[in-house]
Amino acid sequence: MKTALTSAVLAAATAFASPALATAENYVLDASHSQILFTYNHLGYSTTYNMFSGFDGEISFNQEDPAASSVSVSFPVRSMFTGWEARFEHFMGDDFFGAGEDEMVTFASTSIEVTGEDTALITGDLTLNGVTKPVVLDAKLNQVGMHPMAEKPWAGFDATTTLLRSDFEVGAFAPFVSDEVDVLISIEAMQAE
């Protein structure tokens, strides 16, 4: 789903950045290389894949104290890509989101727990379908360094989480269509100008 959670991954990534930053630095998501993929079981017959991409987000990262870092992201519900127009319209309809053009998904981190050399748990508030719930992202830093083409500091990370559709009042047809939705986030972020 809106794993707007995606951005939270950024905080994790930055939490493992090389010790080049002594104070908080601002990063912005690279919208062209950031995706949220979500999957669910359809009646036991298949796994269905959907995606959000092209969204914006910001990270404030403190290298000396990663727990003092923060991340936020937001994007329209209607930016969902299903690969089939009829499914998209069903998701946007009354069975699920009843989503207007201006309905947003947001995620804002509330804490970061570094769990290893390149891993962290990022906790934050996910607002989806008008419901706000805490979510924990299991994040991994892929790489931090100077981008060879952009020639500026860059970071990349992946994160996963599992959401319950029913927690966000979009649980139609459960348990036949699984209530559990697996979320995979992959993000790149660049140092802000």
Describe this structure in words.
This protein has 193 residues and is mainly beta. It has a single domain, classed as Lipocalin. It is built from 2 helices and 10 strands, in the order H-E-E-E-E-E-H-E-E-E-E-E. It has helices at 5-15, 85-92; strands spanning 24-29, 35-42, 46-53, 56-62, 70-76, 104-114, 119-128, 131-146, 153-164, 180-191. Strands 1-4-5-6-7-8-9-10 form an 8-stranded antiparallel barrel. Strand 4 (56-62) and strand 5 (70-76) form a beta hairpin. It is globular. The model is unreliable at 1-21 (pLDDT under 50).
Short characterization:
This protein is mainly β and 193 residues long. It is built from 2 helices and 10 strands; from the N terminus they run H-E-E-E-E-E-H-E-E-E-E-E. It has a single domain, classed as Lipocalin, CATH 2.40.128.110.
How far do the termini sit from each other?
30 Å
Percent of residues in β-strands:
over 45%
Which ranges are low-confidence, i.e. pLDDT below 50, for 5 or more consecutive residues? Answer: 1-21
What fold name stands as the CATH topology?
Answer: Lipocalin
Number of domains: 1
Instruction: Give the rounded overall mean pLDDT.
Output: 88
- If you compute it from the alpha carbons, what radius of gyration comes out, rounded to the nearest whole angstrom? 17 Å
Strand order of the largest sheet: 1-4-5-6-7-8-9-10
- Tell me the number of helical segments per DSSP (H or I, 4 or more residues long): 2
The succession of helices and strands, N to C, reads HEEEEEHEEEEE
CATH superfamily: Lipid/polyisoprenoid-binding, YceI-like
Q: Helical proportion?
A: under 10%
Main sheet summary: 8 strands, antiparallel, barrel
Q: Categorize the overall geometry.
A: globular
CATH architecture: Beta Barrel
Can you tell me the CATH class?
Mainly Beta
